[in-house]
Model the fold of this input.
Amino acid sequence: MASKKSSVKTSTGSTQASNCIMRWVTRLSIIGLLVALGSYLDSVRERFYVFDPKSLHELSQAAIAAHGENMPGIIDHIVTNLTATYPSTQIAINPDQKEWMFNNAGGAMGAMYIIHASITEYLIIFGTPLGTEGHSGIHTADDYFNILVGEQWAFQPGGLELERYPAGSVHLMPRGVVKQYKMHKGCFALEYARGWIPPMLPFGFADTLTSTLDFPTFYRTARITGREMIRNLLIGKI
Ligand SMILES: *[C@@H]1O[C@H](CO)[C@@H](O)[C@H](O)[C@H]1NC(C)=O
Done:
């Protein structure tokens, strides 16, 4: 009687063990597939890009040449040009040049107008007439900072001297690079990021959630970013 009971117990035990192994095999296979998919998508991410850094730099310089330090003129020049250059079936551009919101990130504070946001690119006007300073954040995208008016300064540990980016220049922050930056006095830039945008969003929201508690700005930023990403997904722009 006793021996029969124990043999039943053993067979149930081994069934449980093999179920458990099967569950782990399934989980590991799913993780393996996701990693493979992720690295595949990362290797082909350039296919999803519409804008390119060189023409955005040329456009920024042309806008500065035409409008000097007149920011409304520069912004209108850039948005009008982009809207004329790229068909609305290829990429969605937000034409509302009055749609500004505060942006607090990495200790720096400014305002931004989102010209474009999708899964692999964003294009914004960012800056402040007061000047600001902070941590760049660690990003999963390459970031091209086209200075439009004013000057941006930057620094990396070991640099000892400041890097200076005047109006008309580009400050490229490759994916993963981290800097301290300062928009000395006033500065506005056309910021173009290409890479994986969603993982950058927590950095963009962290200061608001842990410090400013400016929930109307949080809501406005989330709503407009989401709206622009969805507008792009609907036309097949990843
Ligand atoms: C947009 O700007 C670029 C750079 O200045 C220029 O070469 C191009 O002709 C402009 N396109 C339109 C449609 O205005």
